[in-house]
Every structure is written in structure tokens, then in C-alpha cells.
């Protein structure tokens, strides 16, 4: 008797095949999503770093060098003056807040290890006497000023004297996770220019800080040293 060469799958075979496909998808999908998010985050980081660096370079081209952009003290008035001179003319700003809530994440910011950032001001931003603003690109930026010495050592940029600017940038604004080292990154501006926090630190120190048990301040520097590769554990 002939069956005309027709063959088919049994229900059990179909269910087994679907089960295997489901298991493979469950194993690979998280990695695919993490890789996609990583690429999106890297694109945002590169754009943000370019935008902020170019804004400061415009001022340098106007005045001749970075030294003209130094701050003379750590009061809110000094930060405001620096902001008006060095950043505001060269960025498309949609909202600005001077030491008040409204421009930063309502829930504030956390460290990678779940702790509270140094000089945290909750939903006002990070620092005391700060200028915080939002840009047309969707960034939230918090600007503060510090004195050289122990603070200079903490930020890892080798500043020996005078005051300097620390800039925190949340690349997706008020959206979660609002964690330093994930979507919020720290930079230092001085006569050396605009550099990521931790620029003078060793690889060991960078890796220790940018880990689940670390604070996250040096994560942008780690990303740059790794050829713009983000640790998947740091992708939100």
C-alpha cells in the first residue's frame, strides 16, 4: 500500500521542537537585549561626551586656553558665573535650576553599590550650591565646584591647587535607573580640560570602583579604556 510519499510530524515531535526553541530563546534573548542596550548606551555616551567637550572648546577658542575658565571659589555664585560663561552659550538648554528641584531625577541618584553619592542633594542634584539643567538631547546635568587637595585626589585627576568643576551627566534625564556608573557619569573640568573622573587612577582602581561593590564614579573612564565597551552588568 502506498502513502504517496507524504510524511508529517507527530504532535509530540512538534511540542518537543517548540520546547527546544523556547529554551534557546530564553537563553539567548537576555544577551541580545543586553547587547542592544549596550550599543544604544555607548552611542549616547559618545554623543554626550562630544557635546559637552565641544561646548567647552568653543569657550577655549574664544579666550585662548582653559585657564580662563577656572573658578575662583566654591559658592553658588561662582558656579552660576562659570555656567553662564562656559556652558550656557554653547548648549541648547530647555530648563535650568539653581540649587533647587525640578531638573534632576525626583528620586535622586544612587551609587553602583546602592549607597548615596558624596555631597548628595537628593532631587536637587549632586553637590551643594549647584547649577542643574536639562538639554534638548535629554541630558540632566549637575554642576558643582570643589577645592583641590583631598577632593582632587578623590576625583582622580591630579589637581593640586585652586578650585575645579565637577559635572555629572545623566544621559537619559529623569528616567531610571539614575545610578552613577550606569546612566549617570562624573567628569572634572580644570585647566586640563574636560576629562572623566578617575583619569589618573590605575586600571585596578578603576575596575574596583566600577563594579557592583564600587561607587561608579570612574565608570566612564573604564568604558573609554575598554574601547567603548560597557560591562553588561552596568547596562540598565
Largest sheet: 6 strands, antiparallel
Q: Strand order across the biggest sheet?
A: 1-2-3-4-5-6
Distance between the termini: 63 Å
Number of DSSP E strands: 6
Q: What's the SSE pattern?
A: HHEEEHEEEHH
Tell me the helix content: 25-40%
Mean pLDDT: 85
Shape: elongated
Helix- and strand-based class?
alpha+beta
Q: How many helices?
A: 5
**How many separate domains?**
1
Beta content: 15-25%
Radius of gyration: 23 Å
Oligomeric state as shown: single chain
Structural overview:
The chain is of the alpha+beta class. It has one domain. Helix content is 36%, strand content 16%. It has five helices and six strands; from the N terminus they run ααβββαβββαα. It has helices spanning 11-63, 76-87, 150-155, 203-209, 219-225; strands at residues 93-98, 131-135, 140-147, 163-170, 184-190, 193-196. It has a six-stranded antiparallel beta sheet. The radius of gyration is 23 Å and the shape is elongated. The mean pLDDT is 85.
Amino acid at each position: 500500500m502506498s502513502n504517496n510519499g507524504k510524511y508529517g510530524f507527530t504532535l509530540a515531535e512538534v511540542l518537543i521542537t517548540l520546547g527546544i526553541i523556547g529554551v534557546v530563546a530564553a537563553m539567548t534573548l537576555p544577551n541580545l537585549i543586553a547587547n542592544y542596550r549596550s550599543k544604544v548606551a555607548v552611542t549616547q555616551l559618545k554623543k554626550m561626551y562630544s557635546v559637552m567637550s565641544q561646548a567647552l572648546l568653543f569657550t577655549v577658542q574664544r579666550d585662548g586656553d582653559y585657564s580662563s575658565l577656572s573658578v575662583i571659589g566654591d559658592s553658588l555664585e561662582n558656579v552660576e558665573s562659570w555656567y553662564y560663561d562656559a556652558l550656557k552659550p554653547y548648549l541648547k538648554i530647555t530648563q535650568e535650576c539653581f540649587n533647587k528641584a525640578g531638573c534632576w531625577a525626583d528620586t535622586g541618584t544612587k551609587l553602583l553599590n546602592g549607597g548615596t553619592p558624596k555631597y548628595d542633594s537628593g532631587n536637587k542634584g549632586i553637590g551643594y550650591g549647584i547649577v542643574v539643567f536639562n538639554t534638548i538631547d535629554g541630558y540632566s546635568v549637575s554642576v558643582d565646584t570643589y577645592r583641590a587637595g583631598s577632593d582632587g585626589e578623590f576625583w582622580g585627576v591630579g589637581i593640586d591647587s585652586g578650585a575645579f568643576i565637577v559635572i555629572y551627566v545623566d544621559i537619559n534625564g529623569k528616567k531610571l535607573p539614575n545610578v552613577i556608573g550606569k546612566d549617570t557619569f562624573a567628569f572634572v573640568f580644570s585647566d586640563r580640560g574636560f576629562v572623566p573622573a578617575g583619569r589618573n587612577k590605575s586600571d585596578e582602581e578603576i575596575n574596583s570602583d566600577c563594579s557592583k561593590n564600587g561607587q561608579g564614579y570612574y565608570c566612564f573612564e573604564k568604558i573609554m579604556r575598554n574601547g567603548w565597551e560597557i560591562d553588561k552588568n552596568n547596562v540598565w
